[in-house]
Design brief:
By secondary structure, the chain is mostly helical. Helix content is 72%, strand content 0%. The protein contains 15 helices and no strands. Helix 2 packs antiparallel against helix 12 and helix 6 runs antiparallel to helix 12. The longest helix has 35 residues. The protein is globular. It starts with 26 loop residues before the first helix and ends with a helix.
């Protein structure tokens, strides 16, 4: 009697999860990133339009409305410049230093700005504020800041003494020394001179002069574009010196290039609106959380959008709801400082 062969049921093939070597490996991750960018873009456009249209006494679309909106547009452009400078400079600086805590601002970069403003008032008096205004003086401030930054960062990060701890200590010493000299001169000022100076020592969009924008905007766009185009090289730098050299990258040259562009961005932002110490750190920290990736091609857009939303949103709320336009930078610095302390306490180290 012939045996009857019963065919065995073929077990169902298990569905393999999507595998990819892409930065955002899954469909869900890519969808999440698109949603984040879309939400940030909508918020940015909404706050920008709100700054132009809110409390505008003229009917929307009329000639008077656009005339008033054009006057307010200068502040919106300044916020965009500062957002691009702070966001891209901080993310790039943290990459080349291999540290998510330090920023160019914390390293005493903005102490030179305070020293320049204080020296001008100390030597000339109240007229010193006017003496250092103008496109020529704006370019001089940028040149001095870039020169100081390259002297400090270029030597200590890429030279024979390329040590993070040494750079941190010397940066703090330089910043502290400049701050001490500035404080000494401030104590010798009259109350009226000090009041005028104090208004310049807080980061404020109102400090910006529209005549600076034809210089600030091209410098910002060129430096930021070069850093964004070098995102793939920055990804290699983030792997560390040995790994990047093994992959064929000239680590020292790339570090110097990035530091030079970062110095330009930070100098433009500081000379334009004044010190904003913790803005870059706050934005970079949020950008990494939002983007959920370390690829600079994805982190840069999120960081710039986040920075603009934070700046424009804070100014819109404080100006139109609480009528306290002057305290915007103080609140941003307070929130950024608290986030900085939280990250340090959570990590337990620099």
């Amino acid at each position: 009697m012939a045996e009857t062969t019963v065919p065995r049921a073929t077990p169902p093939v298990a569905a393999h999860p999507e595998r990819s070597s892409r930065t955002l490996p899954t469909r869900r991750a890519r969808l999440r990133y698109r949603i984040i960018v879309t939400v940030l873009s909508v918020l940015a456009v909404g706050f920008a339009f709100g700054l132009l249209a809110w409390d505008n006494p003229m009917p929307v679309g009329s000639d008077g409305f656009w005339r008033i909106a054009e006057m307010r547009a200068t502040n919106v452009v300044v916020m965009a410049v500062v957002a691009i400078c702070q966001a891209i400079a901080t993310v790039s600086f943290q990459t080349v230093t291999g540290n998510r805590i330090i920023t160019p601002s914390i390293m005493g970069f903005e102490a030179l700005y305070v020293a320049i403003q204080t020296t001008a008032v100390y030597v000339v008096g109240v007229a010193g504020i006017l003496a250092i205004q103008g496109v020529g003086q704006f370019l001089v401030q940028i040149t001095l800041m870039v020169g100081l930054a390259m002297l400090l960062y270029g030597r200590l990060l890429s030279g024979r003494y390329g040590n993070m701890q040494v750079m941190l200590l010397i940066g703090i010493i330089v910043g502290g020394g400049l701050a001490s000299v500035s404080t000494f001169m401030q104590r010798l000022l009259t109350p009226s001179e000090f009041d005028v100076l104090a208004a310049r020592l807080f980061g404020n969009v109102a400090n910006a002069d529209a005549s600076y924008l034809p210089v600030a905007v091209p410098l910002c766009l060129v430096a930021a574009t070069l850093l964004v185009l070098g995102s793939r090289r920055l990804n290699l730098v983030a792997l560390g010196r040995d790994a990047s050299v093994g992959l064929g990258l000239d680590h020292r040259r790339e570090t110097m290039r990035v530091l030079f562009l970062v110095s330009i961005l930070m100098a433009v932002s500081t000379a334009l609106v004044g010190p904003m110490t913790f803005l870059g750190f706050l934005v970079a920290t949020l950008a990494y959380q939002f983007a959920d990736t370390h690829d600079h091609r994805y982190v840069f857009p999120v960081a710039a959008l986040t920075c603009f939303v934070v700046l424009s949103g804070a100014y819109f709320v404080m100006r139109n709801i609480f009528y306290a336009n002057g305290v915007v930078s103080i609140i941003i610095e307070l929130v950024g400082g608290l986030v900085f302390l939280f990250v340090i306490l959570r990590k337990g180290r620099l």
